[in-house]
Give the backbone structure.
Amino acid sequence: MGDIKKWPIFNLMSPEFLSSVRVAFAYGDHVCNALIVTNTDQVYKIEYNTQRLLEFNDCHNAFSPKIIESLCGLGIKTFAFFEGPYILVLTHGGMVFSITTEYFNKNGFIIEASTPGIMNTYFDNEIVEDIACGKYHFLVLTSSGKVYESCSDYTNHNPKSASPKKVNIDKKIACISCGHSSNVIVTDDGVVYSWGDNSVGQLGLDNSICQTEPSQVTRLVGVIIKKVACGYMHVLALSNEGVLYVWGANSCRQLGICTPNDTHVPTKLDASEMEKVVDIAASCHHNISIAMGTNNRIYMWGQCLGQNIKVPTLTSVSSIHDAFAYYASSRVMHQPLIFHKNNENRVLGSLKCAFNDPNTSDLIIQVHGIPIYVHKSILMIRCQYFRTRFQKDCVAEDQGVIEENMFSYDLFKAFLQYLYTDEIDVSAENFFGKYTCVIFFTMICYIHYTFFSTELLKLANHYSVNQLKKYCTQSICKHITVKNVISLYNTAITCNMKKLEDSCFKFILRNMTAVVQTPSFAELDGLVIKRFIIKAAEAGVFRT
């Protein structure tokens, strides 16, 4: 992991706020910006203007986090940025959203009223595992190992000039990386392919001819590569044996080899001081290379604070992220800083592993005949309902089984998992994989965001988990339609969710004619209709 305070843009944030951060991303070539996702799934932007582009009257607010409502509650996994400006957002559920250039102001900052557009239709409605961006393009890796790219000629630097298309390669892909105008990917059996700009040999093909389609890097045949990392115009490739190969531009000595010349073929880096290389990192925004050696020692070489470091040099930092924060000339992250990502030995990681583990469980909750293995103490700590239930009516030690059949198994399992992890696993793969027919993406989105979130809201209300109720409400408010607004309005009243009720009410007022003609409006309970009419009258709807 890394220390968020090593990045200047976060230095003036309060310790209390920083302690709530789950994902942090500093980005932008000209104006350093940042996005933050908190543990409660709130998303904030932070603006730090290095070129005095802010208006004078706004300067005192430059470091104040400003919430972006449209991104809250999405369950964000990571971000990626490319010139335009454009930002890609990947959720834990495998959805990709884009914030396009029209939602940035003239100074390059995201406006609070931005509306992210969902992109999965471009990727054959597949669940997305990873995203990567170059200077003017991006790659997307799906859970089935397919790769999609935003454009193929790499000469027209307009991200909207071509719709994303599937990369023509039959093998399953395990790793993707983008350089300035080039791409390198690795298959699940360790074979490397590259395409795009090749002006300095960054494709590793022993020539300088640009490629529009993936070509195998044949000089690595016989070597199993597990990870690649593209710099601005150079590439690092790490083998399964901890050996590092480099190629491409070397004007800033970013290859770490003895010659200052560019290299058009993969070259084994003599890195005996690192012993076995454990991890590597580079970025299309930098000419620096970072590697982690034995005993988690961090080495860097290439362009460091305006100087060219010729060979891998041991640093005093303890993480790759901190190396970028200290030494990279462009003070932006190579990828978002995700806290508790490597949490096997942390409390949260232990709790996550403990969920549904029959070896440590002291209680079985049986939902429609299917067992879920849990721990009474954790349920009591996290949920007032279970605390009250177990205190009043303790489950006998020789029994250890309770029945909960009010909600579906998938829904209840997701709820219990939330109590252990503070995360909601609502990926379409989990909830729709059992169907053999093809489900249209629009229907998946509708059920995924509306039906599931609504049912989860009812469950959270029944079990008095207020934080989960807020999470569900945020998700639902983003997906109100004419067809579902009455149902959601009823749910909001039943669950006493004022924010959801107000959102539905405002939506109905804006779309009154269409809503009152729906069958669900005619079926409204009389008391609910009376409540609605009174509230509408107070809002001045019936004034003449």
